[in-house]
Amino acid sequence: MNENIKVLENDRNQHTDNFYLRFKERLEQTHSFPSDYIFKYIVPAEQSIIARLHSIFSSANPSISTRDSKNGKYTSITIKVPVNDADDVVIYYRQAAVIDGIVML
Known about the structure:
This protein is an alpha+beta fold. Helices cover 50% and strands 27% of the residues. The chain has one domain: 2-Layer Sandwich (Alpha-Beta Plaits).
C-alpha cells in the first residue's frame, strides 16, 4: 500500500512540475524580462497566513495592497515585484503554493 502512495505522490509531483514548465514557457512568450510582475492571491483572513505570504516577497521590495472580503473571511492580496526572468515568477508561485488555503490568480 505504501508503494501505491509513493506512485501517486510521484505522479502528482510530475503533474505539478509539468504545469510549471508550461507556465514558464508561456511567460517567456508573453512577457519581456526583467520587469515588474503582479501576483494576485486570495487567502483566509488569518494574520499568520498573510504574514507567511508577505515573508516570501519581503526581500524583493514589494508593493503590496490588500482588500478584505465583504464578510471578512478572506483577504485578496496584490503584490507587485521586480523579477529578472520567468524563473523568478515560477519560484514565487511555487513558494506560495504550499500555503494552506491560498488561491493563486
